[in-house]
Each structure stands twice: as structure tokens, then as C-alpha cells.
Specification:
The structure holds 2 protein chains of 2 kinds. By secondary structure, chain A is mainly alpha-helical. Helix content of chain A is about 75%, strand content about 0%. Chain A has helices spanning about 10-35, 55-95, 100-110, 115-125, 135-140, 155-175, 180-190, 195-225, 225-230, 240-250, 255-280, and strands spanning about 35-40, 50. In chain A, helix 1 crosses helix 11 (about 255-280) and helix 7 crosses helix 8 (about 195-225). Classes of the chains: A mainly alpha, B alpha+beta.
Amino acid sequence: MSFPKVRVPYLLLLPGFVFLFTFFILPIINLAQTSTQTPLSGGDTGEYEQTLAFSNYIQAFVENKEQFGRSFLYATLATIFALAIAYPLAYAIAFKSGKYKNILLVLVVAPFFTSFLLRTVAWKQILGEEGFVVPGLRALNIIGEQTTLTSTSVAVVAGMTYNFLPFMTLPLYASLERIDPRTIEAAGDLYANGLTAFRRVTVPLSMPGVVAGTLLTFIPAAGDYVNAAILGSPNTKMIGNVIESRYFKIVDYPTAAALSFTLMVAILILVTLYIRKAGTEELV
Amino acid sequence: MTNESISARGDLRLTRITKSYGDFTAVDDLTLTIPKGSFFALLGPSGCGKTTTLRMVAGLEEPTVGSIHLGDTDITTTRPYQRPINTVFQNYALFPHLTIFENIAFGLRRRGIKDVKEQVDKVLSLVELPHLAERKPTQLSGGQQQRIALARAIVNRPALLLLDEPLGALDLKLRRQMQIELKWIQREVGLTFVHVTHDQEEAMTMADTIAVMNEGKIEQMGSPADLYDNPETAFVANFLGQSNLIKGKIDGNDGDNLVVDLYGQKISMPKKRSHAIDNSLYAGIRPEKFRISRLATPVKGNVLTGGRIEDVSYIGVSTQYVVAMPWGQELMVFEQNDDGVAPFDKGDEVNISWEPTFTFGLRGDEDIEAGTEVNPEEIEAE
């Protein structure tokens, strides 16, 4: 059997399209519908009717603006810390690791061999009273005798930084590794000292990796609820935790859907602004 | 220190430079002076140490032993960015994120020069690409990138410009054109150019002085004509063009000439063109210096009899013959096609003759295959 050539690309797209339509587009439409429903009068808990109540959005946002703010703050902090840790790491792997390059790359992705949840629970141990971090910091007088780390925002941000670190490291590595070392030599040849060559050549050339890595960290971090649930307390609740509890505990589907939509749109706007800025600004 | 090195000017002197990587010696006790204002070529096969030498001059490698001076300033351990030396890299190494204008202005800006426009525009016109200032490097052809790489280096007016196989990535026609342009630009700007290449034609076209390098050492240094006409070693004789090397014995003197016995036939050659250290020697004659004649034709100069045409290749401008000699050696002969017809056929019995002054003599213990092996990388670069 032969297909006319023009149809081949469409045929190749078909499986992906069917999948995305069934498991992304339809649920999104469903979510949009749910977000404007109101409780069915006289119905049971969890029974709602379609009323186009857009006021759900305003109410949901006003009630949870603190958690929204916290989500974006934590996600931003985790992204910054992950960038600060991952850049030197990716740089060392790309330029200085020699024959150990592949081993180091395997080590970067090694955490994926264990479940995300399990690793986060392990962090609870590490940051707990019986771990070595808290006694260590106390011995160094960095934190007081009464201070603990679990159930604090520090623990949540630390956990997020850790969990999303590979997503930052790998794109950074990929873009650093692609830099022709001779362009860096050329910068030195053209009177740039090490720091200037780094600032003027290495950093701009690694920007695609910085953008990809920060997006891959920030987006899931902003919607994350596992780290806050396991490592945090009610005071460190993020928007993901609110959505989770609205859906599964309070069965308040409209509010949960409205919050999900608001989060999605907020991330979309932030990311668009960010890419525009990173893409068009003079990178030098 | 910084200001002193940046402003250093004068001859480049390498003194007893050695560069080793573990057990491997890339450059071996090399001493070399490159006069200010010259166009100097380091020529040799890949792995001969020429690029390592260049990188040590640029400051990208440090010599294991020895010193490098520019004028009176010792720059052996000076950082690359503190040397008044710029490099045209093999694959140009242009900054892909910067416009052509900013690529060229890079060195000027790093030295704190604020008003760069005039100098950049001037050098862009010198390389005849003023309309490309706002493009990015990836939008340029290979030949254009090559010129921008050159412009980016010479705009700084360095004491020394290093060119690392600058034309290697260009096709043959463009390479020929750039060879002529580079030479013209060198005269125009009056800078010292040090050019590294494995392409003997490129070196001979451009350089005033060529140093032929082999296994980390300089085999011979001189003008292109010197090296070609009077090579001192089999490596130079074979690496620069082709040579016929015939084993012989010095059989006596005849005034300023030596009498040499080549398998029982006597020839003569100028004494001063012999580099033999004892009686044994290889007589070297370039293929285009030979003349082929029929047995009955009287000839002047040196004659070798008993040849037989083994192969004839007509290549337009000349005809190349392979002539088998009685002692089993095959000689290459290039004859100009002056009369438009190939006058000899395969199997013809011939004599070979040449002017005695065209003969050069090499030591009898030379490896006559040296410099003839063609390296796969070089074929690729063609």
C-alpha cells in the first residue's frame, strides 16, 4: 500500500494528536466547565451543576492569594538555587571532566532511578532531628538549639531545589558542551581575561541552556505539592496543596478547577514574558 | 608587566623550546627567530609540532623548557590576553552570538577603546565586506568568515599575527584567491604574519621565509626558492614538491664540481650543493629539470643512459613520464608540452639528461622515503 507523499506527515502526527486530544484537550475542556459550576441545590456533597459562575475564579483567588504568592516565591528561589548549583556543575562536566564525563552525567540522572516521593521522604530524614544536618548546623552555631528545619519553608525550598536539579543541569550541560572551546580561546587571544571571557562569551553562549533549565525547574516547581506536603507545614502550603485538598478532601471541584486554570494561565504569562526577554535582549 | 608586554614590538625569538606531553615530545629543542614585518610559514605534516609551536607563541600552551621573546620582552609565561599577539583560528572561532561588527570590535573594547566604529569600518573595507557588519557569523559563507576572522585579529594591530591553517576549510579556488589576498593584506598592514600550514603550495605562495618542521624539529629554513632548489634533507626534498633521489658515490673533484658515480655512470654537480658528510650521497633532481631524449640525439650536461619509458600521463600543461632505469629505479620526469604532442611512447628506449647545476646532494644515510607518506587527514583537507 502506498500513500501520496503529502499525507505522510499527517499520518505521522495522527497518534500524537489522538493521544493529546483524548488526554489533554478533552480534560482541559472538562476542567473549564467544572471551574464555572456551582453546587447543585439540594444535591449531595460533590454534586454540581453548570452555571457559568465566573465568580468562582475571583473567590478562589482571593481566598488563596497567599498560597499563590508562596508558590511563585518558592519556585523562584528553588530555580535560583538550582541554577547556582547546576551551572558550575554543568561547566565542570562539560569542560573539565575529561574521561569521567559519562560517569558524572550518569550520576546527575541517578536520582531518577528512585521514586520522587521516596527521595523527598528521605529528605525529611536528612533534615530531621536524627539527621546530620541539624546537629551539624547547631554545632557550628549557624542555627540555635531550638531551631528545626523540617516543616519550614527552608526545607520545602531545599527539597524542590534538590528534586529539580537534574532538570536544570542537563540542559545547561547540553548548551555548554556545544560551545566550541576555541571561541573561549579566541576571547583570551583578544585581550579578555578569564572572567571577561566567561561573562562575554561562555555565559551568552550558554543562555539557551539557562532558559531551558530555568523553565524546566520553575514550571513544575510552581505547581509542585509533594515537597510542601512532605517537608513543609500548614504555614508553607503552596497552591498545589490547596488544589489537591480541594479536589480530594473537600470535593470542591469548581474551586480546584478554577485554581488550576489560574495557575496555568499565570505560569503561561510569566514564561512568555521571560522567553521574550531572554530571546530579544542584547545578550552581551 | 602587562603594559610592557602589550606594547612589546620586534623580532620573535624562540630559544631552545621543548614541549612534552608525558612521553611524547611535540616540539624538540627548537630555536627560531622570526624577523619583524616578515611573512613566515611553519610548514610540516600534521603532528610535526607546528601548531603546538604556534599555540606556545599565542600563550595557549606553555613550553616545558625554553623561552619566547618578543623584541626584548620575555613573554614565555605571559597570559594570552596580555600578549600583543592575535590569532586567526583554524575554524575561525568567531563569536556566534555577536554581530560581525561586535566580533571585530571585541579586542578593541577589551582594551578599553571606546570609539571603535572608525577602526572596525576601516578593517571591514580592507577585507571588502563592509556590508556585512550587522550580520551574525552563521549567515556568512566560509570565505567571508575567514576574512572576518582575519579582520578581527588585524584590527588590533598586533605585533604578531598568527594564522593556524587559515585556509584549510576553503575550497581550492577560494584558497588560491585568499592566498594572494592575505599576502596583499600583509604588505598593506605591515604586520608580522606567522602562518602554520601543511600545504606546501600555500606556504610557498605566501611566505618570504619557510621553516619546514618534522617531528618537533626544524628540518630546514629559507626562502621558498632556496628550499625547493636546494633541499638539505630527504624530508624537505620530498615534502616540498617531488624529487628523484639516486644513490651514488663521490668519485672525485673537478674544480668547483664533484664527480659522482650513479650506478656506474658519471655525473657532475656543484660542490656547494652537496650536503653529504662522506663519500656516499643521494643525487637529487626535480622531475621538471630532467630532459628525455632518444638514444641517437646528442645532449649536453649530465646524462643517464639505459632508460625505458614505463608510463605516460598527459596532464595538459605537461606530460609526466615514469622512466625505468637499468638499476631498477623508476624516475619521474615532467616535460612541458611545448610542441603540443607527447613525443615518447611507453616502451621507448631513452636517455635522461639535465643541467649539472640543478643537482642537489643529500647525505647517503638518509631515509629517501621521508616526507613522501601522505597522511589521510591531509587528503581530507584537500
